[in-house]
Amino acid sequence: MSTTNPAATAANHKTIWVRETRFGRWFLSTHTWYRYVLSQAIVDFKALLGERLPAQARILDAGCGQGLAFGLLAHHFQPAAITGIDIDAEQVKKAVSAASQLAIPCTAQHTNASAPTFAAESFDIILCHQLLHHTSQQQETLQEFYRLLRPGGILLVGESCRSFINSVPVRLLFRHPQMAQKDAQGYIDLVRSNGFVFGEQDVQTSRPWWSRRCLGMAQKIGIGLHNTEPTEILIVASKPH
Predict the structure, then answer these.
(1) Residue 19 DSSP label
(2) What is the dihedral of CA 55, 56, 57, 62, to 10 degrees?
């Protein structure tokens, strides 16, 4: 595993990756993130998959961060093995620790999601949760995911949309590459343009309370009721046979 200094890593990848703020890295370790964002996404992905969930799948958690999704994936998807990757070496150290707690084979390593790290068709499912809006290499990343999935393999994309990422609180507290941000339709078009297939029934958009203005309090008192633009999107796509 790499011992790259996080600051040096951020500098080396500055054209493709914006390292999260100290506050952002802390927030991604909180119960709020785990319960209301990550856990809910995994549950919703499973519901969207329905009977298509492969048995004993080989799962890649791309952009795994601290590895908080490992246990959720093991519980809900019952895979044969989980592999986590992340570009932030500091977070990968925590993910390695999280991986060691599972009963099934689980590993984590430091690499860029768009890099050809694994052999073609190595995975049955790729989880890409809140990764794409952190990189300017969205096309390259999705092309690599296409290569890594077996024919019929499943890509799970979960993203925060531009309206949320560009909101004042998020811009003040977190860091993202501005030119990479998309609305819900933009992510739908992006995934399709890289060869993945899915229908309307495979897409879920939402405006959860934590992504709304003033955490939803504005809507409760009648402000901004006209704003129905999705702030979050989930896509269950597949690589054609």
Answers:
(1) P
(2) 130
Is pTM beyond 0.85 here? yes
**Contact, 29 vs 220, CB < 8 A?**
no
Distance CA 165, CA 180 (A): 10
Please choose, from the candidates 42, 39, 14, the residue with its C-alpha nearest in 3D space to the C-alpha of residue 175: 14
Alpha-carbon distance of 69 to 163, in angstroms, equals 25
- Cα–Cα separations (whole angstroms), residue 166 to 20, 62, 134, 185, 211: 15, 23, 13, 16, 11
Contact call for residues 122 and 62 (beta carbons, < 8 A): no
pLDDT digits (tens, 9 = 90+) for 151-190: 999 999 999 999 999 899 899 999 988 788 999 999 999 9
